[in-house]
Amino acid sequence: MKKLAIIGSGDLGQQIAYQATTDNQFNVVGFFDDFTEKDSVVSGKKILGKLSEVQNAFSNKIFDEIIIGIGYKHLDFREKIFNTLNKKIPFATFIHSSCFVDASCKIGNGVCVFPGSVLDQKVIIKDNVFINVGSIIAHDSKIENHTFISPSVAIAGFVSIGKRCNIGINSTLIDNISIVDDVQIGGGTVVVKSIEKSGLYVGNPSRFIR
Ligand SMILES: CC(=O)SCCNC(=O)CCNC(=O)[C@H](O)C(C)(C)COP(=O)(O)OP(=O)(O)OC[C@H]1O[C@@H](n2cnc3c(N)ncnc32)[C@H](O)[C@@H]1OP(=O)(O)O
């Protein structure tokens, strides 16, 4: 079983550690975290060091693959870490075994898909995307790098979502629309037309608030 290290020992990092361990996909060896003391223990897993120590630890075979446990509040940082380590350190792709992922899907590096999500035919998920529990991505839809999908999001067919977007819980995106980079969608929002300007959108139908 591959040894997995997680960047960030906060709530999301701990959830990834739990899911990857209980689903028997990885041996989670610990976290890298700039804000928690080295060798301390978080949710039963060791803090392996700061982010500056990742490459050295990989050279010393402390872990085989890495994944980022930094969530929707820090998508710029999530992107920065990914771009710094990409091609130097192998990124894991973790898809919980309870998910349905059609064989025609293309899934990038560093992608994490939590339990009960469905990725239908020809879905494309680019690098470093996080998909939380129970989300549905219908056929031919595409999610660009570093985007965060909250629980129970429903994305219809032929939808395109940009980079560093944060799609709120239980939101709905109808078919054949596009969303540009850096869009935040509030919980329960219904998006019925393309979003061409970055910013925060809420409501049914969705409206720009800032
Ligand atoms: C496993 C996990 O937990 S993953 C995380 C899942 N969490 C989410 O998806 C959270 C999504 N967050 C939200 O929906 C938040 O309400 C946000 C980000 C959209 C806005 O938060 P804030 O910046 O605090 O905005 P604020 O609460 O001041 O609201 C601004 C206005 O938008 C309205 N509004 C805020 N959120 C929503 C919403 N989801 N739907 C409809 N209207 C909303 C408010 O009523 C308010 O309207 P008003 O100006 O007429 O009074």
Automatic annotation (TrEMBL):
Residues passing through the membrane, by range: none
NCBIfam families in the cross-refs: NeuD_NnaD
Superkingdom classification of source: Bacteria
InterPro entries listed in its UniProt record: AcTrfase_PglD-like, PglD_N, Trans_hexapeptide_repeat, Trimer_LpxA-like_sf
Ranges of residues in domain PglD N-terminal: 3-85
Protein name: Acetyltransferase
CDD domains, per database record: LbH_AT_putative
Family: Belongs to the transferase hexapeptide repeat family.
Coiled-coil ranges per UniProt: none
PANTHER family tied to this protein: ACETYLTRANSFERASE, UDP-N-ACETYLBACILLOSAMINE N-ACETYLTRANSFERASE
